Amino acid sequence: MAQDNTVQSVKRAMMILEELATEKEGLGVTELAKRINLHKSTVHRMLNTLLDIGYVEQNLASEKYRLGMKILFLGGTILERMDIRHEAHDLLKELSEKVNETVHLVVPDGFRAIYIDKMDSNKTIRMHSQIGRIAPLHASAVGKAILAFSEDVFIKELIERGLEKFTSNTITEPKDLLRHLKMIRERGFSVDDEENEEGIRCVGAPIFNYTGKVIGAVSVSGPTVTVTQERINQISESVIDCAKKISHRMGWKDK
């Protein structure tokens, strides 16, 4: 029963936010309650909660409620993800054709990364990855490329949460990971040497926005028989070049 009430409360909160989004000048409690067919006391209580956490604000003169500035944070995050996908798409295709391997684009999502685009090679062997898949930050090329250029406090918190082991090659010791991230920062690219999935090797590079913040990563992935140790340097040059081009499109400037 408690869970049902929680779900109902979330639905009602979303109804309020969606209705407020239709009125630039805002709505009073009575009008809002009438529009979404809820009791005034229920609407008032939920508005106070949304007001407290910043998703709604009130005009004290008119007593009307409207969407708060915090909504921009949620919308901005989605737009940033979509913008990077749009700006990167043709460059991912170009990279995939150049190295003839699968190319991935990811964005950070808390303590993980999410695949938002993928370009398959023309080889008969295809990667099983898909858009929407989750990548661990400490055990994937794209994840480590993001992690290496993240703030120290974030890296520390991720380590404190525990470094899950996926294969015998996964880096699970904090000191080893910190040394590894330092190396990534120095050379500008990361390598997942069968750390997330046995038989798969990946080379990744970070993507930055106009403020210099890391906002994603691009990688070349394939079976170890084609993405060999001997090809890593060659592939890394292409991956870094692609990541820089995407970063430039996102407003990043070389130092």
Largest sheet entry = 6 strands, antiparallel
Number of domains: 2
CATH topology of the largest domain: Beta-Lactamase
CATH superfamily of the largest domain: GAF domain
Number of strands: 8
Q: Which spans of ≥5 residues are poorly predicted at pLDDT below 50?
A: none
CATH architecture of the largest domain: 2-Layer Sandwich
Helix content class: 40-55%
- The number of helical elements comes to 8
Silhouette: elongated
3D architecture notes:
By secondary structure, the chain is an alpha+beta fold. It has 2 domains: 2-68, Winged helix-like DNA-binding domain superfamily/Winged helix DNA-binding domain (Arc Repressor Mutant, subunit A, Orthogonal Bundle); 73-249, Beta-Lactamase (2-Layer Sandwich), CATH 3.30.450. The protein has helices at 2-20, 29-36, 40-52, 70-99, 141-148, 152-160, 174-187, 232-249; strands at residues 56-58, 65-67, 102-108, 112-119, 134-136, 190-193, 200-208, 214-223. The strands form 2 sheets. The chain has a 6-stranded antiparallel sheet, sandwiched between helices. Strands 1-2 form a two-stranded antiparallel ribbon. A hairpin with a 6-residue loop joins β6 and β7. The radius of gyration is 23 Å and the shape is elongated.
